[in-house]
Specification:
- By secondary structure, the protein is α+β, with helices and mostly antiparallel strands.
- The protein is globular.
- Strand 9 and strand 10 form a beta hairpin.
- It contains 23 helices and 15 strands.
- It folds into four domains: 25-180, Beta-Lactamase (2-Layer Sandwich), CATH 3.30.450; 200-316, PAS domain (Beta-Lactamase); 342-457, Up-down Bundle (Four Helix Bundle (Hemerythrin (Met), subunit A)); 459-642, Histidine kinase-like ATPase, C-terminal domain (Heat Shock Protein 90, 2-Layer Sandwich), CATH 3.30.565.
- The longest helix is centred in the N-terminal third of the chain and has 47 residues, at 2-48.
- The termini are far apart.
- The strands form three sheets. Strands 1, 2, 3, 4, 5 and 6 form a six-stranded antiparallel beta sheet that branches. It has a five-stranded mixed beta sheet with strand order 11-12-13-15-14, with helices on one face.
- Residues 5-32 form a coiled coil.
Amino acid sequence: MSDTVETLQQRIKELELGYRKKERELVHLQEAQKREKNIALMKADQQAAQTTEEREGDKFLRLLMENSYDLLLLLDQEGRLSYCTKTFLEFLHVSDSNTVIGKNFAELSGVFTGSTLAIELKEALEKAVQKKTLVELTGTRFLNSDNPHEYTVAVLPMINPRREYEGAMLLFHDVTEIEEANRNLKAQRDAITIMQDNLKAGIFLMDKDFVIQGNYSAALEEILVEKDLAGKYFTDLLSFSFSAKEMESVRDYFTMVVNRLVSASKLDSMNPMDELNYVSVTSRQEKTLRCEFASIDQGSGQLFILATITDISRETLLQKQLQQEQQKRESEMRSLFEVIQLDPAIFSEFMSDVVYNSDRITAILKNKDVESSEALIEIYQLVHAIKSDAYILGLEDFGGKLHDLESEIKKLQQDEDTSFSKMLHLVVGVENILAEQDKLEEIIGRIRNFDKEKTLDNVDNMMLESFRQACARISQDLNKQVRFSMEAVDPELLQRIPRREVKEIIIQLIRNAIYHGIELPDERAAKGKDPTGVIDLSMQTKKSTLKIVLKDDGRGLDFNRISEKAERQGLIQKNKENKTLLAQVIFMPGFSTSKDEGAHAGRGMGLSLVRARVKDLHGEIKLQSRLDQGTTFTLLIPFSDQ
């Protein structure tokens, strides 16, 4: 018997060594793929410098196609193939791309084995075009019998800034080696699990009062990190793993097991300890355990519960790591698809603003002389500004991370004791944003060379385009119809004004006008208004003053609602308010009349940011509003052409 145990233990060691070897192989494989991808991107960057006559967007796609190791297809509006990677030509056994360029995708789909995948691709393409969003097929696919590789499949519609469909990209990402490594890892895990079940499982009996009987397996004490278990209540050992209310449910479950009140299959589905986050009552050590229970008769008519406990902490940790790696890979894919559709100059300007605001956040966190409450407001405003631009450009993944960082800041603001040491917890969140920023720069920086002089020459067009995109994006997300007018804006003037501050101000005013001012089409129609709301922006200089006016024809300010919310927050005294005071309240940090928080409003930072930037420019704000007729913001900022 001892020889058998030693043999089993030796086998476990061999399997564990093999398992760790496979883990290292998987890491090396992923690093090798990353190096190959970086080499391809560097080649693309070199070739991009040689084709300056092409449009930046077309140049990016062409370089991506020529250097990608994946199967990549680009279809035009009519579904005809316009570009494809060399890898795809090799897959078709074709040397000259002219033999396939211009062919309809329906003709090419026949190269994929069986009708099922061809139908899935057609349906995915139709769905992507209809919803104007990325569509991924679940799982992996084998494309044909001659090519035994496994691929993940995604379809991306190409949408221009006017939200018009211009074509689609099909991506078949080769995951053969990763999937094979995952299968090998799973086989190793399964083998180890089987050995653990036979040698290292904690097995014991407990009576109807949940008392552990003697003669339990030696592994039980190691698993539970407790000694001398005989005679102890098993439920007492779980006191740090469940709340008092949860423990009542556990006792009820054990009662059903020992009395055989329901079928075994039903009990398995009800098991509250199938995956238990266990905390030892003695050492406070944490583990993940899998517990199984069954009722047995010892022959005397007395029923006992047979318990089998397995430590699955290692398996659970590995699964989490694999999930995190998958999430990271998906995040990088989403970022690639989001960045690929951006105008190079606009993206360059956006990244410049991100770097500028990130540096300001870092400086605030390092400055111990600034009051914590004041620092939190400034950081909140800077994060809000970056998030606004990210969502407007369609960088949903980046915007979502910034939205989460805003939530962390808001929690700190609600803490009465906001010490400087607590604020340092924000450093982790800021570092994550900086890492995301670096990832975006790496994606675009290795492929495109931005013409800085061109960017400066077109600063007016970029700013106006940012305003148009903001209006289009926000109105679409909120299901509102808006016509944005900038006829009274002198493009030449935009090159002489403080660009970053003015841009942030106007973007926030546009968001505020659409979210709070412009009504939904049905609501406007019921009021006798045109279903399409109007936002008008004018900008001019007079003497030494820059005058910016943004007005909408929406619902106007609801002073009663503002008053009620301000009273609840203790910002004003009851029956002491007036319209002038209430108009000042809406600019306070954290004040919002919205009931819900979302990507575009609800956190009370938009107008607070406007006031802060106008103050930075030594300007002033004037506000006019009439119920159901609209609101006008007038900004007067000292200005000089010198």
